[in-house]
Amino acid sequence: MRKAGTERLVRIAVTAVLFGLLLCGSAAAERTLTAGCPSVCNETVTARKEGNNWVLSLPGCWDLSKLTLELSGSATVRIGREELEVAAGQTADLSAMAGERQKLLSEKGKPAGYVKILQGSEIPALFLTVDGNELKKVNQKKGYPAETGRAVFCEADGRVSCDGELSQLKARGNTTFNYPKKPYQFKLKEKASLCGMSSAKTWVLLANWLDVSLLRNQIVLDISRAVGLRYAVGCEQTDVWINGSYQGLYLLTEKIQISRGRVDITDLEKATEEANDGLPDPGEMDKKRREGYKMFRSYPSVQDPEDITGGYIMNIEKNYRMLRDDAVGFRTENMLNIRIREPDYPSTAQVAYLGGLIRETEHALLAEDGIAPETGKAYDEYLDVDSFARKFLIEDWCKNYDAMCGSQYLYKDSDRVDPLIYAGPAWDYDLSFGNMWDKGYLTTASYLANFQQDNNIYWLLYRQDGFRERLSQVWRESFRHAAAVVLGEIPAPQGSVLRSFDEYRDRIEASARMNFSKWEVDRAHTLKYAGRDFRSAAAFLKNWITEHTRAMDELYGSGDTEERPEAKKQD
Question: Is 509 domain-assigned?
Fold first, then answer.
């Protein structure tokens, strides 16, 4: 009995080993289907396998009449009813096969499944290459950087404007990081100009997971530039592949940072680093509460340069996000949260300087006459009213869910250059234009002025007669003209980044279909009434913009566009 039991255990062990080897062999033999277009670039893309079907997603700038197609382990591949034979490394005309499910055979005529060839819109294509294990870590942990790789950027016309080393790829976002389609930030080793935007190293890829139209961020960022908001963020719709695998349609944007061509103000970050021998270690953050603040966070070990009055980039932040370990800045007694983005490690003196300035501004705005009692200075001696008026209208026009916190950026230069605090740049508009449940859904009625809270800078400004007059003036002179372009009422001025809504929609439709072939509409997180697919979502958005623009005409000025002067181009 004991011998028989032993033999049985041996057989089980041998079977397990053989089964394991079989699995390993099966994994090793997993086939791949790749395609390339040597006439445009040297990059190849890999088809996505879904059961017995392949989905091959191709850039819009590729010439389908000059494609390579290769099935691993096979010297040739046959495709379609006519069984067109394509040899590995040779080009073939597959343009007639796009969009339809095609039969696929290996070189020996054995069935290899079916393939559907999809081609994106005539927009740029970005190819990123990083180590596969590093990419897994990037997608699992926000902020984890893959620090080596390669980036190739093909413009919409197929021209390669960047082909160089990648020094960083990391996932970004707050809530959006938790969704399957990750937003990213990537950094090039050498500066490059993408889509004609200012040459830079660092770029952002917005996934737009919550916006089924995929258009909200682009429309608002473009209109912010058209209405003259300084340092408006440039952007362009771009299809993205990582390690040959299609990731979807993203909005490529400039990063909000102090730099020439971005937020071009005094670089206090650089001056602080010079005062601290490169700032290799800022020391621990001090989180002790200070008089006059609900929260005060700074780096007391950091030494100050001579001038600490600027430049700063900051944003109005949500309460819970100020509790994060890396959040540095302050919370005023009126519960206004200011998170300092640049410098990265502000000293105690720098936080105190900025905190004092914001508190004085608050006191001026809270006063009936708009004058801070402790200084005798009016609110417009602290804030650039024009930028706040333009930003107010941007937030009110799209009814941005985060209009009072989260992604509300502000910046300030050195007093030697300009002592005022400016609103902008505009950022983060996936939850806007009615794409939210609990506020801002209606196309009628005012928006920002309804939130009458002491920590709502926009409400405090709206109480001032002079500010309301400036709102109406900006609406009539520039903003309504830009909205008219989006609505298709008038053509865009020469050189403008703006397009009509129909142009925005039609320009990305093929890529949107390709995007949603990979990422199904997430009905658990998106708002169903705002669109169940790309076309219905675009229709909802266009109708919402049309109706709300008319409502704002009643609030701020005439909607007549016939004799409206041309919008001024941003320098």
Answer: no
